[in-house]
């Protein structure tokens, strides 16, 4: 098997690891059909330091690369963060495994050594984990640190305060949704080019586009523009019978069977029947409650409503907002009192429907100077929300220190483990060699973090190991502060990881290495 692709991927990703990692510029070529139907090639520029995005856009036909892409996709979807470190660790394990095979180590022995190392790592992770309650005494400082750790190596690192608040608001809403599984599925993203990253905001509600090319333009013409320039309270109704054409035809057919003279006695034409039905419908929705806001918004996927119906509805303060898809928003907003406001993005008019108590309908309005910036914002927020979902899966959650500190503990634990195995029998020497290779792969993560920050990792690693070997429990959370270059307690520094996400990532990495 050709392992050149593994070395190449490891080299590409290694300089992108951590908050001081470098972005990669990818010139991706893709095929598209132009207006004349001819096939042509176009280039797309992508700037990112995310391992998942980098791997996804590297066009190399190689079975090992396909396996690593699947691992990257699994970590990104199941965990959310840690794709870069996960792929680097997998590459290190595969490379060290290949080295052992060239030294005539049996594949089963390599697998056994890796599995024993993995089991030992799980024990050490559990031993170093700390309990915390997500909402205990209303203190969410730990959540702030978790979000900060996730976003510190991404494009949002300079906007941690505002985006931490956005993530916490999203989490607060999602916790109220029963049987939630995939948190990101409850979020609607609206991307608008232009403005600053700081202009991104959270909206509990949704946006509906309004322009002269669709039927929503009638809202602007029928409602007072001065009112829409400010916020007004409206009631939302969905799943209403606005497509009266079938009902009208059925009623007229019944009258025809009863005789022409009889039908003309009550209704001279179809428009009179239509008018009667609309009048009854207006009375029914207006009489549902004693006190209602001045306007009622009808969400409908029907686009065949006549101008006469629209005018009758608008004269009674009832307007139609057309949605081309029957999505969950229609159900979430049904029978709700919302705030209606006309907003403008990129010279296009939108209706903003907002209900602050609404949890099932969450929208994020993303702003940025380029398309790639906006895409990176979405990816970063998805990562943070996925990590938070793991931290709030139960009332109690376990956390570990980040920044490479837990890797130091794992390396030292595996070192002691090999010593114990050798004391049991000298025949375990080969097995200990495999475990040592696993340990070296883990050590590569803090090494790269320190090197990417511009420091010499040789002396700094010795200092950190000397602290971790001390009996004081405080030092087990120490790693190098990548800003100052000094040994720092990562828990006090706010660099925190979720135990479940760490264990899940390691297990997926080991399963991938075994399949490679």
TrEMBL record:
Q: Which domain of life is it from?
A: Eukaryota
Which Pfam families does the UniProt record give?
A: Cpn60_TCP1
Print the keywords alphabetically: ATP-binding, Chaperone, Nucleotide-binding
Alphabetized GO MF terms: ATP binding; ATP-dependent protein folding chaperone
**Which InterPro entries did the record assign?**
Chaperone_TCP-1, Cpn60/GroEL/TCP-1, GroEL-like_apical_dom_sf, GROEL-like_equatorial_sf, TCP-1-like_intermed_sf
Q: What does this protein do?
A: Molecular chaperone; assists the folding of proteins upon ATP hydrolysis. Known to play a role, in vitro, in the folding of actin and tubulin.
- Which protein family is named in the record? Belongs to the TCP-1 chaperonin family.
Quote the protein name from its UniProt record: Uncharacterized protein
């Amino acid at each position: 098997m050709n392992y050149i692709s593994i070395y190449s991927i490891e080299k590409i990703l290694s300089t992108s690891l951590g908050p001081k990692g470098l972005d990669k510029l990818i010139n991706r070529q893709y095929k598209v059909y132009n207006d004349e139907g001819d096939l042509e090639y176009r280039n797309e520029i992508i700037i990112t330091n995310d391992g998942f995005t980098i791997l996804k856009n590297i066009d190399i036909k190689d079975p090992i690369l396909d396996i690593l892409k699947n691992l990257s996709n699994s970590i990104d979807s199941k965990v959310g963060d840690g794709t870069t470190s996960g792929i680097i660790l997998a590459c290190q394990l595969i490379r060290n495994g290949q080295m052992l095979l060239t030294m005539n180590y049996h594949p089963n022995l390599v697998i056994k050594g890796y599995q024993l190392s993995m089991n030992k790592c799980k024990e050490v992770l559990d031993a170093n984990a700390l309990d915390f309650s997500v909402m205990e005494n209303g203190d969410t400082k730990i959540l702030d640190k978790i979000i900060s750790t996730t976003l510190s190596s991404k494009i949002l690192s300079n906007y941690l305060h505002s985006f931490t608040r956005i993530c916490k608001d999203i989490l607060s809403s999602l916790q109220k949704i029963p049987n939630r599984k995939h948190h990101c599925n409850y979020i609607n993203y609206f991307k608008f080019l232009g403005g600053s990253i700081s202009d991104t905001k959270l909206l509990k509600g949704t946006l509906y586009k309004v322009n002269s090319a669709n039927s929503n333009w009638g809202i602007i013409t029928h409602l007072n523009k001065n009112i829409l320039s400010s916020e007004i309270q409206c009631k939302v109704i969905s799943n209403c019978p606005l497509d009266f054409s079938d009902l009208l035809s059925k009623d007229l057919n019944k009258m025809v069977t009863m005789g022409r003279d009889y039908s003309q006695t009550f209704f001279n034409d179809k428009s009179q029947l239509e008018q009667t039905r609309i009048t009854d419908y207006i009375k029914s929705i207006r009489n549902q409650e004693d006190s209602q806001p001045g306007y009622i918004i009808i969400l409908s996927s029907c686009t065949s409503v006549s101008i006469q119906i629209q005018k009758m509805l608008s004269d009674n303060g009832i307007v139609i907002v057309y949605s081309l898809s029957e999505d969950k928003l229609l159900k979430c907003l049904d029978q709700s009192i919302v705030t209606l406001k006309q907003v403008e993005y990129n010279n296009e008019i939108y209706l903003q429907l907002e209900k602050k108590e609404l949890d099932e309908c969450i929208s994020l309005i993303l702003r940025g100077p380029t398309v790639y910036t906006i895409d990176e914002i979405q990816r970063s927020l998805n990562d943070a929300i996925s990590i938070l979902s793991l931290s709030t899966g139960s009332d109690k959650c376990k956390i570990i220190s980040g920044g490479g500190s837990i890797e130091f503990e794992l390396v030292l634990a595996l070192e002691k483990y090999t010593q114990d195995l050798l004391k049991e029998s000298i025949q375990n020497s080969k097995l200990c060699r495999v475990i040592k290779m696993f340990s070296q792969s883990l050590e590569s993560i803090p090494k790269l973090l320190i090197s990417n920050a511009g420091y010499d990792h040789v002396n700094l690693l010795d200092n950190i190991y000397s602290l971790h070997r001390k009996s004081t429990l405080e030092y087990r959370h120490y790693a190098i502060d990548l800003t100052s270059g000094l040994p720092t307690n990562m828990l006090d520094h706010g660099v925190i990881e979720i135990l479940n996400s760490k264990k899940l990532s390691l297990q997926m990495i080991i399963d991938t290495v075994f399949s490679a």
